[in-house]
Amino acid sequence: MKKRRKATVCFNCDNPLLNSENFCSTCGQENNSKQASFRQLSKDFMGDFLSFDSRLFSSIVPLVIHPGQITMDYLDGKRQRFIPPFRVFLFLSFLYFGLSYIIDKDSGAFQFTSDGSEEAARKIFTGFVRNFNLIILLYIPAFALLVRLLFKSKQRNYFVNFFVYTLHLFSFFFILGMVQILLFYLFELTLNESMNNTASTVVQIIIFIGILVYSVISLKRVFKKRYTILRFCVVLISSLIVFSIFIFSAVLLLIAINQ
Questions:
Q1: Which of 70, 106, 151, 211 has the fewest CB atoms lying closer than 10 Å?
Q2: pTM, whole model, 2 decimals?
């Protein structure tokens, strides 16, 4: 076994170290040579990767099959086993928008000719697609605020509780969105136009019902309020109005930029 090259002081926090100490008792950093090595770089990468991979699995599975449970656990302080809400949201949104771009590019969808008003429409549409994830990020706090207005209680009163819930909810929506994209692409490759339209409609109905059921169950589990369905209907209608305003504002801004 190769002898470990140790230091007398922690390079991370300057805590004095004994030769028998393999790790700093103050910050936990490994007692090793200051000089970085490819071995250490690989070890750090694999450690972070495997940790992320295991926590990703333990975060995604309960997120999908137990509506609201991961939010409950996180708000109750059981956080070490899960990827932080914003991190899992960004990871799934990256996968969703990346998959959307790849599928749309491969299928040749949303193609415009390059003359006159159609060229301007193409630029506006392209700008909208590229910035749609930014619109979603801006919309998240607005949706969380609407949920707070309808579901706040003595136990769940701080805005951050509703923001965490919204991040988890939209993370689930991204998962459904990826499933829908893949199914639609599969239908396009294997079915004729009539069957493709029918199958796509069925999938859209199932996903819509799934969103409603998941949202109601998760809201009921996390916030424990009466009349959950009625409250959610108000949130849904209000959020659609707010989202329409976001979309309309974004389109107007893109039109103004491209003029």
A1: 106
A2: 0.71
Q: Residue 138 corresponds to which tokens in the numbers above?
A: 């801006």
What digits encode the pLDDT tens for the residues 9-63? 776 677 777 777 777 777 766 666 544 444 544 554 445 544 555 677 778 888 9
Contacts (Cβ under 8 Å, ≥6 apart) of 199: 183, 187, 191
d(C-alpha 93, C-alpha 177), whole Å = 10
Burial of 115 (0-12, 13-18, 19+ CB in 10 A): exposed
Please write the tens of the pLDDT for every residue from 250-259: 777 767 776 6
**Of residues 131 and 150, which shows the higher confidence score?**
150
User: In sequence order, which residues have a C-beta less than 8 Å from that of residue 150 and are 6 or more positions away?
Assistant: 225, 231, 232, 234, 235
Structural contact between residues 88 and 175, judged by C-beta atoms closer than 8 angstroms: no
Estimate to the nearest angstrom the gap between the alpha carbon of 212 and the chain centroid: 19
Torsion of CA 177, 183, 187, 188, to 10 degrees: 50
Q: What is the number of alpha carbons within 13 Å of residue 102 lying toward its C-beta? A: 10
Q: Output b/e per residue, 161-183; b: 16+ Cβ within 10 A.
A: bbbbbbbbbbbbbbbbbbeebeb
SS3 at position 9: strand
Give pLDDT tens digits for 65-96: 999 999 988 888 777 777 888 888 888 888 88
| Angle of the 116-130 helix axis to the 228-258 helix axis, nearest 10 | 130
